[in-house]
Design goal:
CATH class: Mainly Alpha
Distance between the termini: 75 Å
Number of helices: 18
Strand content: under 5%
Oligomer: single chain
CATH architecture: Up-down Bundle
Helix content: over 70%
Radius of gyration: 21 Å
Structural class: mainly alpha
Number of domains: 1
CATH topology: Na+/H+ antiporter like fold
Shape: globular
């Protein structure tokens, strides 16, 4: 009976997701925010079941795998220096904002660092989709936006592994941090060496004509990598991310992406719903003012950081500001960070609920700001020029 109810609730959730997602696409709104909203509504009718939790966990695994799979192309290979420098500037401008907010809210050190990661990382999904929809792919600032996103994805993947490893220890000291960093580095190094030395053998192993067997093998690689990471006390997500990096340079990369994408889209949607269902309604109204404050502060730091990066690389004032506005939306990685680590819900500002409010505001308002950034920038530059003339 319990399994029947779980399956029924999953089916109703998927139907609700379809209708909500269909409406969201009509008004060009972020699906991430809509799916979290659906989850918040569904908690009135269902509990998060074992099936939903399992699929949500797969959502994190497949999402990180797809990020790793996409990292073999673009600026990472052609301009590693630009990725490093642009990403470092972005990190220095935005990570301390989260540390300041965590200190302001009275969080302990681990929660403060998690919040810093949540506030720091831009939504690759929302930004990439917006660049395509707004036909800005050829804009001069877009290359630097992608450089920052690549750096953020890699940084947050490593950061997630370290945070999960530290929370498994249950305390924070120099020894545990050193041990976790050593373990994380060794895990990364193993996959990098494997990718560099065994690429042609990996190509031969996964070059399977039979579609069903091909999908089963790729799923086995993903799940085994995730399980291996969990076995040594790291996040399953980091194992999946490294599996994606391992397969990203193979000749079957596009075929892998097409095979795994349906699994990723389905399980990721359920992950966002499950996260929405975990947000406590009692905290929502109480958290909105703080969510707005964090959104304004973090948006300002992103625009300033983007502007600095643009001017550093001799972009025009307009292109530099557009770069900053492109980095405002937050989404999937912020939710993953909040969802992957057990949080104390009895704090004055529960981190999971605060993240939900913040991401909803950021995904919705950030997408609107990104879309309308041209006239905002035009108004700002005209106002600035007027002030200079006075």
């Amino acid at each position: 009976m319990f399994i029947d109810e779980s399956v029924l609730s999953l089916g109703i959730s998927l139907l609700a997701l379809f209708f909500a997602g269909f409406l969201a696409t009509k008004i060009n709104q972020s699906l991430t925010a809509v799916f979290i909203g659906v989850g918040m509504l569904l908690q009135y009718f269902f509990y998060v079941t074992i099936i939903t939790e399992f699929i949500a966990m797969l959502g994190i695994i497949f999402m990180l795998f797809m990020f790793g799979l996409e990292l073999s192309v673009g600026s990472l290979v052609k301009n590693p220096g630009r990725v490093l420098y642009a990403g470092t500037y972005d990190l220095l401008f935005n990570f301390p904002v989260g540390l300041f907010v965590g200190w302001l809210l009275g969080y302990d050190l681990i929660h403060t660092f998690v919040l810093a990661g949540i506030i720091y990382v831009t939504s690759s999904v929302i930004v990439a989709k917006s660049i395509i929809d707004l036909k800005r792919a050829a804009n001069p600032e877009t290359e630097y936006v992608l450089n920052v996103l690549i750096f953020e994805d890699i940084f947050i993947a490593i950061f997630l592994a370290c945070i999960v490893g530290i929370t498994h220890h249950g305390y924070l000291d120099a020894t545990s941090i050193f041990f976790v960093i050593l373990k994380t580095s060794a895990f990364f190094l193993f996959f990098i060496i494997l990718a560099r030395t065994s690429q042609k053998y990996i190509d031969k192993i996964i070059n399977i004509d039979h579609t069903e067997l091909f999908v089963i093998l790729i799923l086995a690689i993903i799940v085994l990598s995730a399980g291996g990471a969990a076995r040594i006390g790291l996040s399953e997500a980091i194992g999946a991310f490294l599996a994606g990096l391992l397969l990203s340079s193979t000749q079957q990369r596009q075929r892998i992406s097409e095979a795994i994408k349906p699994f990723q889209q389905f399980s990721t949607a359920i992950f966002f719903v499950a996260f929405g269902m975990s947000i406590n309604y009692k905290h929502i109204v109480h958290l909105i003012p703080m969510g707005i404050f964090i959104f304004i502060l973090s948006s300002f730091s992103k625009v300033c950081g983007g502007y600095f990066i643009g001017r550093k690389y001799d972009l025009s004032e307009k292109a530099s500001l557009r770069l900053g506005f492109n980095l405002v939306p937050r989404g999937e990685f912020s939710i993953i960070l909040a969802g992957a680590v057990a949080m104390n819900q009895n704090m004055p500002y529960p981190l999971k609920s605060l993240t939900g409010v913040y991401v909803l505001l950021s995904a919705i308002l950030g997408s609107i700001i990104l879309k309308e950034s041209d006239w905002i920038i035009k108004w700002f530059i005209e106002r600035k020029n007027t002030e200079v003339q006075k």
